[in-house]
Amino acid sequence: MTVPEPEPAGEVRGVPVPERGAWLRRGISRDGGPLVEDPDTEVVWLQAGSYYADSRGFAGTTTFDGSRVRFHHLTGEPGDDTGTLRRDGENLVEWGTNPDGSTFLEIWTPLPGADGATGSWSGPDHHVVRIGRHVVHVDSRAGTYWRL
């Protein structure tokens, strides 16, 4: 897998997050480095309306300003991250900035089994999102992914 070319400066044309989706990270590039795929690490992002949960241990809401998406971390790992999403066939390519100022590029591919029940639930110290057969639970300690 090769690193996609970034958008030209001044021409940010991002798309909003899908209203509903179950996504598996296929690769990540940090601070302009090579795209890395780790077959031993399964990172899953679920999106239900404006609510999301990421198996790395953060969840919350997303907003879109017409070109960039902001992931507001309300549960789990603190901070927000901002990125630009672009479709590449059925995949999503995300370029962004972490709360510490480091940059990333991630390739997300849709997970099968995303049809069916969808919902988002939260409590004092947890957030859960379900998309079809996929569930991510996030609390102050960790994120956990289950396939039903």
Helix content: under 10%
Query: Taking Cα atoms only, what radius of gyration do you get, to the nearest Å?
Result: 14 Å
> Strand pairing plus helix content: what structural class?
mainly beta
- Main beta sheet: strand number and arrangement? 8 strands, antiparallel, barrel
Number of strands: 12
Written as H for each helix and E for each strand, in order along the chain, the element string is EEEEEEEEEEEE
| Tally of individual helices | 0
Cα shape: globular
Q: Which characteristics define this entry?
A:
single chain; 148 residues; mainly beta; eight-stranded antiparallel barrel; 0% helix; globular
Mind explaining what this structure looks like?
The protein has 148 residues and is mainly beta. Helices cover 0% and strands 55% of the residues. The protein contains no helices and twelve strands. The chain has strands at residues 20-30, 44-48, 51-54, 58-64, 69-76, 80-88, 91-97, 103-110, 118-123, 126-131, 134-139, 143-147. The radius of gyration is 14 Å and the shape is globular. The mean pLDDT is 91.
Outline the fold blueprint.
Elements: E1 20-30, E2 44-48, E3 51-54, E4 58-64, E5 69-76, E6 80-88, E7 91-97, E8 103-110, E9 118-123, E10 126-131, E11 134-139, E12 143-147
Antiparallel strand pairs: 1-2, 1-8, 2-3, 3-4, 4-5, 5-6, 6-7, 7-8, 9-10, 10-11, 11-12
